[in-house]
Design brief:
About 70% of the residues lie in helices and about 0% in strands. The chain has about 325 residues and is mostly helical. The protein starts with a helix and ends in a 35-residue tail after the last helix.
Length: about 325
């Protein structure tokens, strides 16, 4: 991989990690569900007019939009608003790789190899350590909401796998159109129209900046750059960059929000990131002859690495 491509991979991971700190700042300006709705509105418009018509059936766009946009991001934003720290959220969400593997095994019949099962156990141990750490310093209910968000992310990953979109950016832009109205409706019902109107009337440059960052920088730029890297390099080469996301997430939260990073949290990070690496990343298999005979494949055959797919990591 060229140095410029390496730099781009690190930059995307940094953007996605810092995004959690930006979300925390945005939650000071907006109710969580309204903030999430505005994020998807800004991500969809005006991009939806430039990416072309959807390239997969609408049922997949709607299903992923509800699972990823409404459930995953709704739970994440509400959990962070309820007191879940930004840095810890960036770490705990990585358990989505375990949920994805478990759901894929149950729904798609994909049986994980022994090393992936061991990785799930290690990652779950990391979640346990993180829960102990959060239980001594913050609300466990908020922690549970972020874990539930990771589970919803796992559901959306499997749905995306079934959809198999040929153009990932086109797919995600159209997916971003789905959550806007449901999230607005939920915001009106649970957060109240008066609170929403107050937030919109008090919109300032910082609040607008958080919306633009999570929508355009984290989603449009981050997703587009990640997809570009995947088109030029094997998934197994690109995937490890995603493991830097919680590193940047925890570091930026400590620097800009003053969030403490306790020894228990570092232990949880080591276990969770290591477990996710074992769960999500596999070595390419050696090239072999096709089932029907003929010459061996020119390139190694790589199993699908969920960790490398951009829709699995943006936040």
């Amino acid at each position: 991989m060229r140095p410029s491509h390496l730099a781009l991979g690190v930059l995307v991971a940094a953007v996605w990690g810092v995004n959690f700190t930006v979300i925390e700042i945005g939650l000071d300006h907006f109710p969580p569900l309204l903030f999430s709705a505005l994020r998807f509105l800004a991500a969809a418009l005006p991009a939806v007019f430039f990416v072309g018509l959807p390239k997969v059936a609408w049922k997949w766009i709607v299903a992923v939009g509800l699972a990823l946009g409404v459930a995953k991001f709704g739970l994440l934003f509400v959990g962070m608003d309820a007191g879940m720290p930004a840095g810890l959220s960036s770490l705990v969400l990585q358990i989505q790789a375990v949920f994805t593997a478990v759901i894929a095994a149950a729904v798609l019949g994909e049986r994980p190899a022994g090393v992936r099962v061991l990785g799930m156990v290690v990652a779950c141990a990391g979640i346990g350590v993180a829960a102990v750490d959060e239980g001594t310093s913050g609300p466990l209910g908020a922690f549970a909401l972020v874990v539930a968000a990771a589970a919803a992310w796992g559901v959306s990953n499997v749905l995306t796998r079934r959809a198999a979109p040929p153009d990932a950016l086109n797919f995600m832009v159209w997916v971003s159109t789905v959550p806007v109205l449901p999230l607005l409706a939920l915001s009106l019902l649970t957060e109240g129209p008066s609170r929403d109107l107050e937030a919109l009337r008090g919109l300032d440059w910082q609040g607008a900046g958080t919306i633009l960052f999570v929508a355009w920088v984290s989603t449009v730029f981050g997703f587009g750059a990640w997809g570009w890297l995947l088109r030029h390099h094997p998934a197994s080469t690109v995937a490890p960059f995603s493991l830097l996301v919680p590193v940047f997430g925890m570091t930026s939260a400590a620097l800009f929000l003053g969030e403490p990073v306790t020894p228990l949290r570092w232990c949880a990070a080591a276990l969770l990131v290591g477990g996710v690496a074992m769960t999500s990343l596999t070595l390419p298999r050696r090239a072999g002859r096709p089932a029907g005979g003929g010459e061996p494949s020119e390139h190694p055959v790589e199993p699908l690495a969920e960790a490398a797919r951009p829709e699995y990591h943006r936040a």
